[in-house]
Amino acid sequence: MTTTSLQMSRQLLVGELIRRAAHKTPNQEAFIYGDERLTYLELEKKTLHLAGWLQQQGLEIGDKVGIIFKNNLAFVEVMFATASAGCVSVPINFRLAPEEFVYIINHSDTKVLFIEEEYQDMILSIRQELPNVEKIVVVGKVNSMELIPYETIYHSEIPYQSIDGQVEENDACMICYTSGTTGKPKGAVLTHKNLLLSALNSVVDSKIERGSKQLVITPLFHIAGVGNVLISCTVGGLTVIHREFNPVGVLHTIHHEKINGLFMVPAMWNLVLHVPNIEDYDLTSVQRCSTGAAICPLEVKHKMMEHFPNAGIFDAFGQTEMSPTTTCLLPQDSLRKTNSVGKPVMNVEVRIVDENMNDVPVGEIGEIIYRGPTVMKGYYKNPAATEEAFRGGWFHSGDLVRQDDEAFIYVVDRSKDMIISGGENIYPAEIEAALHKHDAIFEAAVVGVPDPKWGESVKAYIVLKNGKSLTEQEVIQHCLTHLASYKKPKYVEFLNELPRNPSGKILKRVLREKEVKMN
Fold this sequence. Notes:
With 519 residues, the chain is of the alpha/beta class. It has a nine-stranded mixed beta sheet with strand order 2-1-11-10-12-13-14-15-16, with helices on both faces. A five-stranded parallel beta sheet has the order 4-3-5-6-7, with helices on both faces. Strand 5 (110-116), helix 6 and strand 6 form a beta-alpha-beta unit. Helix 9 (247-257) crosses helix 10. Residues 19-380 form the AMP-dependent synthetase/ligase domain. One of its GO terms (molecular function) is acid-thiol ligase activity.
């Protein structure tokens, strides 16, 4: 089905990615999800049908489409359909609390919202707080006449109107919300060009072959999940989608589908590698064991090499605002530079600077900053944050790193104090803001503490108001009323006062060192 023109074909557009694959290899399987198998031609037909439906609802170029799904095939269909209609998708973390959903849906100006059936009661409970949402579509069983069943969209013919000449590669394609260090998430606006060039960077650096088969386990609402889908489609490959992480299920799919590559955070790799009968599975098809979000322990890498004898280990590093990958440690350096995140990928320019944007000497710590065609367009409706992030003509990551004499980069700390727990990014300021809503809490500081299973867990240090009392469980329960469950503190410690420097700033470094000494 040809829906493009010469003008559109010149652009790096996400919707064009599927059209090209359908033209070249129409019968090639593109996605597998459970018992569903979809070829590129079938995906193109569904994508354009759904894009036509969005146009029929009155959505115009640049309008926003929200997505609240766990991993499923509909996510892929909605994402590509939204791009094909010239609209902007807003993937939202399904684990958020109701008040967090309200903020992101309203802030993003979402007009049509796609959700799975298990979230409809929650969405209906906040429906009156979502004035911009015009339509809500549900994948699965529908419990209200107000909601539209996803499958009914495909029951009748709907024409698709070409967006030729109306959308360009530097226009917004997706808004990904990152947890804010000031308590409110920021929406990183990623363009068509951002996303497709980032995918191409990974194809080249990881030497991914045409028709490669991959397994996607990481959440598709994460930029890492989206990125892996786009990488596979760039090479006309097959992607098997798992709804959620199951170590035995991972091995089963690799064995039966002859998977060539997969990405998991170190905690997930560790669980897969400790499946008792792992040797019963044929894992020889795997060529790429990719990891990121945290440094992969050396012992885990040795186990990867033992059980995946034909695979190279790729350690990726990046962030949402960079679409996302910025550096990668390649297999040939995986062991000798094991704590490094490697060197910049193609099309990403890097500097390591001090607070005055002067390059720091080799071996010294500085902030890593970026330039290149994968840098986001900006933060949605937040010009102040955008200006701050792009000061000096570079994107400021907030990550503190050092570089060795061979130009390998090592992450030292996160100036934004981000905690990574099982691959989820958690920002202490967001939790601290929730804690301060309790009338018994005088002040609070949140840090990440070592966790052998998840990498890091959340710990809250709390100073109570005079005459007030709280238990650890009461603090955790309070957080659950304001935050997603995975952000709640796992540990709570009550102090008489928090450590501070002479200017009054809380010294989180002292709290972290305290935890290291205790462990």
